[in-house]
User: What shape does this take?
Amino acid sequence: MNDRQDSSSSGYIVIVDDRPETLQMLSIMLLKQGYKVRQANNPQIALKRIFSDPPDAILLDINMPEMNGFEVCSQIKARPETRDIPVIFMSALDSVADKLEAFSVGGVDYISKPFQLAEVLARVDTHIKLRRSQIHLQEQAKLLQAQNALLQGEICELFSTEHDLYEDLKLAVKQNEFELYYQPLIEFDSEKIYCFETLIRWHHPQRGMISPLDFIPVAEATGIIGEIGKWVISEACRQLSVWTQQFPDHGLSLSVNVSGKQLIDSSLVKHVKQVLAETSIEPHKLKIEITESAVMLDQNIGLDILRQLKNLGTQLYIDDFGSGYSSLNRLYDFPFDGLKIDQSFVRQEKWVLVNAITMLAITLDKDVIAEGIETAAQLETLKILACKNGQGFYFSRPVTAKAATNLINENIKSLES
Assistant: This one.
């Protein structure tokens, strides 16, 4: 019989055995089932044929001259182009140690001699089907990866953003190129800093500081926002823990911004709970801000997650209120603790709207915070309108953690004097 025989192929098998009768018997059976068969009666010939023309599966004897089957299998598994080929050992050796050795060097199955032809065929069929399924899944994964890369490029184009920015953003997450800045929130009557809003900044190694307005839309569109958002929560709570130890009597809290995309991530609540436990932060000192448009556009988006966050004890605020699509009914749906008046209303001094939002918050027994305060006159008007808390450049721009620590020290001294 020739060492290679073809039929209408169901697959390509290499049989490695030093006994001619075994080679012949197995070849006849496999040929009848539509397999293409190639024989090798010694290890060196077997390796040469396997490396030159990788098969779908290998039937491999153990006891052979010059090199045993374990050594042959080890060489097959050492090469990237052949390491995934299923190797089925066949041997009269039947000890547990031999079987363990066979699997340890990369075998997928072990058939004891004397064997039943039907058993050999069933196992060959099974492993070839598994191997083909594996190859198909790998090909699909590569295709999806290529499609994803193409889609990310299209998304970035849609957002008028260079695709390079997306690639740099992925790298920035790994290399920790982000930093949190902190803007104080002030109680108007006491002039006390009672909270800081955390704001992310990206220090790009070549481009310098990149505005969140440029990279956050890309992060949201491409899904990276989840990982970035969790880092922000972790880092913010870590910093609050430091300040709580430094200023135990000041009662500081921190607010973090959460994207609407994060509200559909079921792992968000678990992450917040874990971080609060790790940093020993009292839950009510963590304020989570969600933009009005994020919570109002989709009737169901994140409502369950918001309720779970509320049940943890965190406080929930609707950010940029007045700029989106709110209705009174929707406000009743969400378990929020306060409203932050959109900064454009304060900067443009649209006091009728500011007054309406303030009265709405008071009526609903919710906290209200004014954003975008830039002048003493704006502050005085807000006080007249019964708004009690706010933030803006009039008090301080967003600053580093070190600078924020100095602000707290100065504020404490001012309150004590």
The chain has two domains: 4-135, 162-416. The longest strand covers residues 192-204.
